[in-house]
Write a structure and sequence with these properties.
Layout: E1 7-12, E2 17-24, E3 28-36, H1 38-42, H2 49-71, E4 80-86, H3 90-107, E5 111-115, H4 116-122, E6 135-140, E7 145-152, E8 155-161, H5 167-177, H6 184-194, H7 216-226, H8 234-259, E9 264-268, H9 275-288, E10 291-293, H10 297-300, H11 304-316
Parallel strand pairs: 1-4, 4-5, 6-9, 9-10
Antiparallel strand pairs: 1-2, 2-3, 6-7, 7-8
Helix pairs in contact: 2-3, 4-11, 5-6, 5-7, 6-8, 7-8
């Protein structure tokens, strides 16, 4: 009789979503529960760290219990507990870490610390996609914009990154400038799709020959245009802004792939829920003969299943943690 595949629970509390997901064998999602805090933070136009950590405290064991219930499992059925320990908000991270430690200690199962960014990089594997090493990963979220050469699991070289605002952050800031509300990404994309033309804005890249990005100037350009008194609606502003972001992401990512002679690009992070961005990457990939991989929108944003997947890959390598595991808000790949 075949031995059952290991079942890992993943806990994700790096920012403002409390999530627990259970994955079997590194590919089969048994449950993936996410408790959103959008209603809490929307009136402030962004995430308030103290409110986020308090909400995690209130919801963490409810979310974990619901994940087990949906999977039809008990704690005793788990092979390991994976948890995000960075990067992220320190107060939020600590809630998840302490919950994972308690589960690990009581049920005598391995504790597995996971880099949040690894979850985003490999999340496409949860939907049956398969990609070979090496590949170029583009991580775009509320806190990160990074171009990474991935030579293997745990083997990363950061080639380019933002020097100021992350993509998701600048989407939120532009939405706030235009009084669109929070979170800004979906609202900006919706208005951009209604536009008949887009205002021309500068591409958000460094001109020094590096593969880095800079989005603060683009945000300023939108604000200046908005305050110029020119008779242009928000649809056209959003379209122009989004076009400039997409141009920067496309040109830098494909340039990195060409320089490294790599024919595979993997996209990850909450901003990849933007269908326009994904469509443009697919179009460019077909033109240049490069394979594109990215998860569906439900797995783009922060979730426990992607942490469970990364935890499974570490479980296979027996990369376990002691109970002195601590939050590392500035953790890098």
């Amino acid at each position: 009789m075949a031995k059952p595949e290991p079942v890992i629970i993943g806990i994700e509390t790096s920012c403002d979503d409390t999530s627990a997901g259970i994955v079997q064998g590194g590919s089969k999602i048994l449950s993936n529960v996410v408790s959103s805090q959008i209603k809490i933070h929307s009136e402030f136009g962004g995430v308030v760290p103290e409110l986020a950590s308090r909400s995690h405290l209130e919801n963490i064991y409810i979310v974990v219990g619901e994940a087990l219930k949906q999977a039809g499992l008990q704690f005793e059925d788990l092979y390991g507990v994976a948890v995000t320990y960075g990067p992220g908000l320190v107060g939020s991270l600590l809630v998840g870490i302490e919950a994972a430690k308690a589960i690990s200690y009581v049920y005598k199962i391995p504790l597995i610390g996971v880099n949040h960014l690894e979850g985003h990089i490999f999340s496409s594997l949860l939907e049956g996609q398969s990609f070979k090493f090496p590949f170029i990963a583009l991580i775009v979220s509320g806190g990160h914009t990074e171009l990474v050469k991935v030579s293997g699991f745990g083997e990363y070289s950061i080639i380019g990154q933002t020097r100021d605002d992350a993509v998701g952050e600048v989407f939120d800031k532009v939405a706030k400038l235009l009084d669109l509300g929070y979170p800004g990404g979906p609202k900006v994309e919706k208005l951009a799709n209604l536009a008949t033309f887009g205002v021309k804005f500068p591409e958000a890249v460094m001109k020094d020959g590096s593969f880095d990005f800079s989005f603060s100037g683009l945000k300023t350009a939108v604000r200046n245009f908005k305050n110029s008194g020119k008779n242009t609606d928000n649809n056209s502003l959003c379209a122009g802004f989004q076009d400039a972001v997409i141009a920067a992401l496309l040109n830098k990512t494909f340039a990195v792939a060409a320089k490294n002679r790599i024919k595979r690009i993997v996209l990850g992070g909450g901003v990849i829920a933007n269908k326009t961005i994904c469509a443009e990457f697919v179009k460019r990939g077909k033109k240049e003969g490069i394979e594109l991989f990215f998860p569906s929108s439900k797995l783009c944003t922060d979730n426990g299943a992607m942490i469970a997947l990364a935890g499974y890959l570490k479980y296979q390598r027996k990369e376990f943690c002691d109970y002195d595991l601590n939050a590392d808000p500035g953790l890098t790949l």
